[in-house]
Amino acid sequence: MILIDGKKTSEILQSEIAQEVDNMKNKGEKVPHLAAVLVGHDGGSETYVAGKVKACERVGFESTLIRFEDTVSEKELLDCIGKLNLDSKIDGFIVQLPLPKHISEEKIIEAINPHKDVDGFNPVNVGRMVAGLPAFIAATPFGIMELIKRYGIETAGKNCVVIGRSNIVGRPISILLSQKGIDCTVTLCHSRTKNLKEICAEADIIVAALGMAEFLTGEMVKQGAVVIDVGITRVVSDKTKSGWKLLGDVKFDEVAPKCSYITPVPGGVGPMTIASLLYNTLLSTKREIYK
After folding, report:
1. What is the model's pTM?
2. Please, which residues have CB within 8 angstroms of residue 68's CB and are 6 or more apart in sequence?
3. Segments of the chain assigned to CATH 3.40.50.10860
4. Active site (annotated) includes residue 107
């Protein structure tokens, strides 16, 4: 069993990005500039955005953080997005989700210029991805594909099961895994899927992305399978100083001994998300997607 180290892989990818930024600086080219819009004071969002700002510093990006209180109106937020769309100094930007209930996330996502949509959520980028065209890929699916590539995991002709059909992870990763050059045969499962245990037991690759702690058990996985655990659930624990611990969608102790490759939680897919965002911003600066 090989443990897929997302933390180390993320550090390697960020080092590669930093080297590219150094090369751009030496040539007198524009330095990538990432902006983040944060609404309210959600603890998870605060931590994630702070991590993005630090990551920008590490790789030599410029960064801008724009804050709004959670009382901001939808119009004010849309006006801000309009200005960022037109600001030539900003190469890419994200609006941190979730947003307050009085603001339509769909309207906000659709308002972002696809050329600067480094989160990869705008329907234009989603559509381009489906069509196999160059596109900004959402961070988690990008991170999964990068781990598979860098660990040399064989995909052609493999039977892959994706559990979960969210627009952020499940649907896009099912499409990416089925594309030419990757060539998996993909089954997308969800809460209404019948015989899920039997379907998973036939899979060469399983991507668990449903958000239910330790859902995937040892009896659902065949010997030698590759398991990618996307889930992250915080649960109470009397064995940690913080009083809680993080669990994935996979019952690790049962599943890991049967796997050829498996991602841990934490330290698997999660660390790849910020590196993916930085990579998309670099592509935007270099006009690699929309030439």
Report:
1. 0.93
2. 37, 38, 39, 40, 76, 77, 80
3. 29-120
4. no
Pick the CATH number of 29-120 from 3.40.190.150, 3.40.50.10860, 3.40.50.300, 2.40.50.140: 3.40.50.10860
pLDDT tens string for the chain (291 positions)? 999 999 999 999 999 999 999 999 999 999 999 999 999 988 878 888 888 889 999 999 999 999 999 999 999 999 999 999 999 999 999 999 999 999 999 999 999 999 999 999 999 999 999 999 999 999 999 999 999 999 999 999 999 999 999 999 999 999 999 999 999 999 999 989 999 999 999 999 999 999 999 999 999 999 999 999 999 888 877 777 777 888 999 999 999 999 999 999 999 999 999 999 999 999 999 999 998
Distances (CA, A) of 11 to 55, 153, 156, 247: 10, 20, 27, 23
CATH class of this structure's domain 139-262: alpha beta
Tell me, what amino acid is at 86?
L
Active-site residue, selected from the candidate residues 14, 52, 116, 158: 52
Catalytic (active site) residue 117? no
Chain-centroid distance of CA 215 in Å reads 21
Q: Choose, from 91, 119, 204, 249, the residue flagged as catalytic.
A: 119
**Annotation marks residue 223 as catalytic:** no
Cβ count near 70 (within 10 Å): 13
For the chain, give every residue range classified as CATH 3.40.50.720: 139-262
Beta strands per DSSP E along 166-218: 185-189, 205-208
Q: ∠117-77-167 over CA atoms, to 5°? A: 45
Given 5, 91, 96, 229, which residue is catalytic? 96
